Amino acid sequence: MNLTKSNRGSLYVSKLFGSIATRYDLLNNLMSFGQHRAWRRKSVDMVNKDIGVRGPILDVATGTCDFAIDVEKVNSQTTIIGIDFSLAMLKVGIAKVKKKKLNQKIHLMMADGHQLPFDNNTFAIVTMGFGIRNFDNPKAALNEINRVLKPGGRLAILEIFPIQNRKFTSKLFKVGFKFVAPLLGYIFSNNSEAYEYLPASAESFMSSMQLLELTSESGLFHVSNKELAFGSVSILISQKGN
Ligand SMILES: C[S@@+](CC[C@H](N)C(=O)[O-])C[C@H]1O[C@@H](n2cnc3c(N)ncnc32)[C@H](O)[C@@H]1O
């Protein structure tokens, strides 16, 4: 099966994450050599830096809730809501949040990021880790995020992007991701298809600069960005005007 943008859809993506939910954290650790934790922490630092508004925080495509939990460490005074359309992923997150005794602070709900069930101008920060490239319509998701952000509120996107430069290390990383991910997926979750989808979805996704353009078309302006892992991962921080 050719797992590119053209033949995936929300139902496919939701089922796919449902099928790997209980192994997702383990495979994330293995495939990023544990780096995904540092990347989320860096995103939280960047989005909070010199922010001018306070208020609730939304984690879109929260999955197993790692981003929401990292956000809570720095923003412990505020309510955090995580949404995802995969119940299986959320169930892993619910157990994790409960174990960390954070269930009074982090609230999880099933929802589609294309249609956020929140009022306009609600959140001071929206985060989204490795989520946007799985969306059917990233522009619609960004419009929704702009709608629910307060004026002066910020969006942090952490995502895997196609590698742009031709350096040997970048190429090596790309080849490794393409072949190692399905192998690890097969060994640890008995699901190589899901882990063929993950690199394929990154390779067929737009560049970080194109996503920044789309973000600005949605009404958010660029604050800062950072490339990680030989340019295969980026953090993009944007802000809603006042
Ligand atoms: C790669 S996981 C990322 C999970 C988590 N944010 C993290 O940092 O590890 C992608 C998540 O996006 C969710 N997702 C994809 N499309 C979505 C949509 N349209 N609405 C809500 N969740 C979505 C999937 O169900 C999955 O849990």
Give a description of the structure:
By secondary structure, the protein is an alpha/beta fold. The chain has helices at residues 10-31, 35-48, 66-74, 87-99, 138-148, 168-189, 192-203, 208-217, and strands spanning 57-60, 80-84, 106-110, 123-129, 149-160, 220-228, 233-240. The protein has a single domain (5-240), classed as Rossmann fold (3-Layer(aba) Sandwich), CATH 3.40.50. It has eight helices and seven strands. The chain has a seven-stranded mixed beta sheet with strand order 3-2-1-4-5-7-6, sandwiched between helices. The relative contact order is 0.17. Residues 1-7 have low confidence and may be disordered. The structure holds S-adenosylmethionine (SAM). S-adenosylmethionine binds at residues 10, 13-14, 17, 61-63, 66-67, 84-86, 89, 112-114, 129-131, 134-135.
